[in-house]
Amino acid sequence: MKKESFGMVHPQYFTFAEPPHRLKLQSGKSLGPVTLAYETYGELNDDRSNAILVCHALSGDAHAAGLLPDDPTPGWWDGLIGPGRALDTSQYFVLCANVIGGCKGSTGPASIHPETGKPYALDFPMITIADMVDAQRHLIDYLGIDKLLCVIGGSMGGMQALQWASSYPDRLRSAIPIATALKHSPQQIAFNEVIRQSIMADPAWRKGYYYESGQPENGLAVARMIGHITFMSDQSMEQKFSRKLKKENLSFQFTEDFEVEGYLRYRGYNFVKRFDANSYLYITKALDYFDLSGERFMPDVKKTPVRFLVISFKSDWLYPSYQSQEIVRLLKRKHAYTTYFDLTSTYGHDAFLVEIDDETRLIKNFLAHIDRT
Amino acid sequence: MKKESFGMVHPQYFTFAEPPHRLKLQSGKSLGPVTLAYETYGELNDDRSNAILVCHALSGDAHAAGLLPDDPTPGWWDGLIGPGRALDTSQYFVLCANVIGGCKGSTGPASIHPETGKPYALDFPMITIADMVDAQRHLIDYLGIDKLLCVIGGSMGGMQALQWASSYPDRLRSAIPIATALKHSPQQIAFNEVIRQSIMADPAWRKGYYYESGQPENGLAVARMIGHITFMSDQSMEQKFSRKLKKENLSFQFTEDFEVEGYLRYRGYNFVKRFDANSYLYITKALDYFDLSGERFMPDVKKTPVRFLVISFKSDWLYPSYQSQEIVRLLKRKHAYTTYFDLTSTYGHDAFLVEIDDETRLIKNFLAHIDRT
Fold first, then answer.
1. Which chain A residues contact residue B250 at CB under 8 A?
2. Average pLDDT over residues A288-312
3. Are A173 and A308 in contact (CB under 8 A)?
4. Are A85 and A178 in contact (CB under 8 A)?
5. Does the distance separating the beta carbons of B238 and A193 come in below 8 Å?
């Protein structure tokens, strides 16, 4: 079958927890009203059994596939979503929502606080992966979907897939957590903490209340540069940059000598144009708080009805394969039907966005065998 | 034999390249006068054949062993240097000098520029590992040492050991490069670039001219936190911190929740008290510029007379073992007598400072077989 892009899409919005109702959060606090920005690809079938929820990573958004008006950039998982692709939009109804706490249309720290008329800033409550999933469940209810065929995502998206299975095992038939973990290791927390410290060390951050004065651009750019190093592998950086110089000779000055330096600066300072620093703080904290290890996963479920496909990548040192293997061991203890692949790739953590062919082969086959009755 | 600390030491200073003379630098620029702060442990023997030069790493200094007056902290390699220790001060004359560009007594960006009467700041010329070694050679000349028994160091100290062998193969009998590389990979350059960007993004940096207004403390602290993550291993962080909380419960605020966060903040902000931000910039650049790969190593020497002991650590991901194996392959091509050990350790890059027992066994045996005639 011909594989093609889904084509034009348009952003959609769903608002719930309108006063006096509020979304109850894991912290004990609550939030409302809550808006989710989302996109859909394909058609929901008559018995509403063909819906697949795609969950995005730290700096992702609802634009997973196709093209938006006035934006030439295809969605972040465009290669995986479309007619004939792994998430085949001629068969499945695929949807993706921006997480709460984000800055791409869903309610987050840059949104207007209804009580003050100003952006929440640090008055926004701390949110967790479970809270993100609870908000998505409201969207699924609204769309009239009783049971998702699958929840799929990489990195933080994979945590959401695991959280869906743990929080609402009766609301999904399968889950595909990719390049993810049951909980952050201290090294992962440490990288996130330095990212947060970098943002908060920038005087322009103003303890979070910068929406009138402008973003803490330098702090956020440095934070993103740290991220980019962890997304790539030693080997992929060697292949892409080696020690190639930007000019013929070393400058013997504090300018960009090596191509890798220019790349990092470009990616760092480009990021500040499209992402809110406070969202980066809230979402990294949600990542660090996430912990479904041991008895925290499906606490009331002896034998899970959810089927799992777990995927990791050998060169991913941010979410190393041993963390996916911990997921698999936990799922086996819950007697889950679980398939696991540790894929060869040199792309490091970025592999989940890049290794489309390998992922397509595994995901297509896995989805074809999910019982929808 | 009883192993004991060397005891009290005192800082010494040597100044050369006094006007009109200057130290010629690799950049084409020059520097003078140049002061080196150094310490010595043990006695130089009559034929001056027992001198061992210890070279320090990025944030190290001349205080390698023993105790200084008014400072309770033993030198950074105290476990390796002293009577009966690996660098046995009852047999050897051990010395260590702060590198040029540093901030612990040797001439660096915080030193007074003789032409302006103010700190050099960014008028300090860019320096390289070869320049550091050239300055050390002046000190060795001054001490009347024709041939060093050994040059030893870890990380940047190991680069200096390799540079000594390449620049002055007739001035040393042996070299022990530990946990080091012939050149930085793009990943290593990337970490250093983010470290530099973090410092330079701090408005208090003032393009380097901050000596009257005060250090860019926040930028330097974040820079050092990045460093600390790379010095440890995933495993050593798990052993030391796991996901241990500072308080009983998660705070759901942007405070320190996990012990690893508190550790990083403490190490980061403690560092700004003892290290100059501009020195960090200059020295990281020297690390990135270093490249003795291929024909750059001992270009005029067909068969090196220097003996080598190369050591790496399996969990060191900042200077991975494959980089030490590249050193060994290059040395074999120069027909060098080379011994190589890839030691098991969970401590990551920090292992070269921690795994004293294993290092002692290898170094003692190696030094005992160096021909001094």
1. 289
2. 93
3. no
4. no
5. no
Task: Please tell me which residue, B303 or B105, carries the higher pLDDT value.
Answer: B105
Residue pair B93/B139 in contact (Cβ under 8 Å)? The answer is no
Catalytic choice (A56, A63, A184, A349): A349
Whole-Å CA distances, B315 to B18, B287, B355: 45, 21, 12
Q: What is the pLDDT of residue B70?
A: 87
Can you tell me the distance from the alpha carbon of B284 to that of B334, in angstroms, rounded to the nearest whole number?
29
Å from B126 to nearest chain A CA?
6
Token pair in block for residue A65:
């596939």
**Domains of chain A by start residue, with CATH:** 12-183+291-368 (3.40.50.1820), 188-286 (1.10.1740.110)
The answer to whether the Cβ–Cβ distance between B193 and A261 falls below 8 Å is yes
pLDDT in tens, A260-281: 999 999 999 999 999 999 999 9
Q: What is the pTM of this model?
A: 0.97
Alpha carbon distance A336, A306 (integer Å): 7
CA pair distance A78, B305, nearest whole angstrom: 59
A28 to chain B: which residues are within 8 Å by CB? 252
- SS3 letters across A219-266: HHHHHHHHHHHHHCCHHHHHHHCCCCECCCCCCCCCCCCEHHHHHHHH
Residue A246 CB: number of other CB atoms within 10 A?
A: 14
Select from A370, A373, A350, A368 the least CA-distant residue to A174. A370
Nearest partner of A258 among A271, A249, A269, judged by Cα: A249
Residues of B in contact with A222 (CB under 8 A): 194, 197-198, 201, 222
Q: Is A111 a catalytic residue?
A: no
Confidence (pLDDT) at A300:
82
Catalytic residue among B106, B155, B279, B315: B155
Q: Please enumerate in sequence order all residues whose Cβ is within 8 A of that of A301, keeping only pairs 6 or more positions apart, or say none.
A: A169, A334
What is residue B4's predicted lDDT score, i.e. its pLDDT? 78
Return the pLDDT at A2: 57
Average pLDDT, chain A: 96
Catalytic residue among A61, A131, A316, A350: A316
Residues comprising chain A, all counted: 373
Query: Which residue type sits at A191?
Result: F
pLDDT in tens, B147-183: 999 999 999 999 999 999 999 999 999 999 999 999 9
pLDDT score recorded for residue B2: 57
Q: Enter the tokens of residue B86.
A: 């690996």
Kindly report the nearest CA distance between residue A212 and chain B, in angstroms: 20
